[in-house]
Write a structure and sequence with these properties.
Elements (H helix, E strand, L loop, with lengths): L2 H9 L7 E6 L4 E4 L7 H10 L3 H7 L1 E3 L2 E8 L3 E6 L2 E7 L3 E7 L5 H17 L3
Antiparallel strand pairs: 1-2, 1-7, 3-4, 4-5, 5-6, 6-7
Protein name: Profilin
Function: Binds to actin and affects the structure of the cytoskeleton. At high concentrations, profilin prevents the polymerization of actin, whereas it enhances it at low concentrations.
Family: Belongs to the profilin family.
């Protein structure tokens, strides 16, 4: 399966994730949903979340120009909110999965989708 298929099939087709990307921990976007663009600065900020979770807790994270407040963050996950929507960011062995959701999807529904893909990628060494 290509990285784009992971975004399209495992994330977007669930209906619980509206925008998504997979970025490499060494840099670069591996795949993203149509029109979803993370600037190089946003990509670096996402990667820093996992080395300094307290900074993300204090100032949130920007994705494709939108600021999300960190509801929960640690060295493996960030759950963020913006209005009634939010984001789920999960670190794997070599990548970071980013998923954004809009109402009526709730955080736990979106978190489950992104976490499931994260668990799978970790299980196969990615």
């Amino acid at each position: 399966m290509s990285w784009q298929e992971y975004v399209d099939v495992q994330l977007l087709s669930t209906g619980n994730i509206q925008r998504a990307a997979i970025i490499g921990q060494a840099g670069g976007v591996w795949a993203s949903s149509a029109g979803y663009t993370l600037s190089p600065q946003e990509q670096q900020a996402v990667l820093r979340v996992f080395t300094d979770p307290s900074a993300a807790q204090a100032s949130g994270v920007r994705l494709a120009g939108k600021k999300f407040f960190a509801v929960q963050v640690d060295d493996q996950h960030l759950y963020g909110k913006q209005g009634a929507g939010g984001c789920t960011i999960v670190k794997t062995t070599q990548a970071v999965i980013i998923g954004e959701y809009d109402p009526p999807t709730q955080g736990p529904e979106a978190n489950l989708v992104v976490e499931k893909l994260g668990d799978y990628l970790r299980s196969v060494g990615y």
